[in-house]
Amino acid sequence: MMHDEKHKQIVRQVVEAVNGNQYGDAIGRLISPQVIYRHNDKAGGANEWVTNIRDSRIAFPDSRLTIVSQTLEGDRLITCYQFTGTHTGPRGEIPPTGKRVEITGVVTTRLENDMIAELDEQVDEVVLAQQLGLGDEPPGL
After folding, report:
1. I need a surface site. Which of 54, 81, 121, 135 has the fewest CB within 10 A?
2. b vs e for 20-54, b when ≥16 Cβ sit within 10 Å of the residue's Cβ?
3. 137 in a structural domain
4. What is the DSSP string of 16-79?
5. What is the pLDDT of residues 44-90, one digit of tens each?
6. For residue 41, is it within any domain?
7. pLDDT tens-digit readout, 112-138
8. In 10 A of CB 71, how many CB atoms?
9. How many domains does the chain have?
10. Cα separation, 16 vs 41, whole angstroms
């Protein structure tokens, strides 16, 4: 049971680091430098995670993650979150729209040695594209 609470606390600390714009500090402290990171159809490691968060913070500088729920299934923690922010910066080839978005996402994590060793994130990019006024085809979100 203590391990379950530790897992939840580590994910909450990562969310706090992202919200506080201190996400780079999470690598090696909360997230393994060898993390396996998947975001929708993209895969990579720690560098890709940092790049994705950095790019999101550039596009949505006022963004905020809020944990909605956390459920443990075996050695995996499923965290549902809400992302809110105003699109005032570029994201890839998408210029700022000035629109406020509110989307949900799901992150599944697995720990090794009290650090996140695997992080699988799913975000509905079609809903995000619709809220940004881009239609149903998210170009490079």
Report:
1. 135
2. eeebeebbeebbbeebbbbbeeeeebbeebbebbe
3. no
4. HHHHTT-GGGGBTTTEEEEEEEEETTEEE-HHHHHHHHHHHHHH-TT-EEEEEEEEEETTEEEE
5. 999 999 999 999 999 999 999 999 999 999 999 999 999 999 999 99
6. yes
7. 999 999 999 999 888 999 999 988 776
8. 11
9. 1
10. 25
Integer Cα distance of 139 and 141 in angstroms: 6
Write down the pTM of the prediction: 0.91
Contact call for residues 126 and 135 (beta carbons, < 8 A): no
26, 28, 99 from 32: Cα distances, Å: 9, 5, 34
Q: Which single residue is written with the structure tokens 């430098």?
A: 33
Task: List, in order, residues 6 or more apart from 120 with CB less than 8 Å away.
Answer: 37, 38, 107, 108, 109
Residue 121, number of CB atoms within 10 A of its CB: 18
Residue 26: CA count within 13 A, CB half-sphere: 26
The answer to whether residue 14 sits within a structural domain is yes
13: CATH: 3.10.450.50
Quote the Cα angle for 104-105-107, to 5°: 155
Return the SS3 of 14. Answer: helix
